[in-house]
Amino acid sequence: MSTNIIVSGQTKPVNPFGLVYxxxxxxxxxxxxxxxxxxxxxxxxxxxxxxxxxxxxxxxxKYPAVVVAHPNRGVKEQVAGLYAxxxxxxxxxxxxxxxxxxxxxxxxxxxxxxxxxRIEDIRGMADFITQYEGVDASHLGLLGICGGGGxxxxxxxxxxxFKVVATLSMFNSGLVRRNGFMNTGLTTIxxxxxxxSEARALEAAGGEIRYAADTKVTDxxxxxxxxxxxxxxxxxxxxxxxxxNSTFRYTLSSLLDLMEFDAAxxxxxxxxPLLMIAGxxxxxxxxxxxxxxxxxxxxxxxxxxxxxxxxxxxxxxPEYVAQAMNKLNGFFGKFL
Length: 336
Fold this sequence. Notes:
CATH superfamily: Alpha/Beta hydrolase fold, catalytic domain
Largest sheet: 8 strands, mixed
Order of helices and strands: EEEEEHEHEHEHHEHHEHEHEH
Radius of gyration: 19 Å
CATH class: Alpha Beta
Strand content: 15-25%
Mean pLDDT: 95
Low-confidence stretches: 1-11
Distance between the termini: 25 Å
């Protein structure tokens, strides 16, 4: 595989495809894993996606495929692209797309973050990849990372095109937006709902678009954050794996939808094989544990903890990525 310029062990954004993860593809090489940039329509919105094809890809043959859903405020060029590429190296055709209203995809206002849209984005990726040359639609898997993991659980509950579902460092977006991380925002729920309601009213009247999480954070402030998730996430998204299309902000009115959402409801509807991966030191693990225990509708489920890993470290640390990929390859290989 071709490599990029590496500084401090991480890829800098000089990649021709905009990829910012280590050992990312830099050009199409015959006989190797290749990346294909595509655009398609989903409910009238242009969706920007990358498709990865395995080495010696032959469109006349049939391959299993995996949809990869990116984290909240992430884009396809970051961790979703890394795992999509790794899975392609294992023989799968994979797709990673920017969520509607986010990244390089269309939609206005920018950075709308509604659960129903994110779930529809996942289904839209399935629509597109199952029509792609060489894909065996009867062998379709789903991998969701962080917030994409929570939305993947919801998508798989009802969309049985997904024969298997896996999550990495699953993040229950609605739970956290409502109650705060580790229930630190319980006392401000009603005030935040009031602000979100006012923001929606302002939008409806043609006024300004108000955003949450739109403040600039310094290194010093990040270093004082009490949770690994936010401290390490700041450096991942703003320093080591920064991408111009990635942002923490989201429309304040989105909270009306986020705060009534819970990725862990109706988990009994998942009857497909389920694999949930998390770092043993991840402060987000409580979300994976809760959803996993509620998944009573499947006879095949496994919880895998990566020893010593935090949430963000599963995104890029080579030894942790290797362990996650080893487990994913075994899981998809068995059930796809």
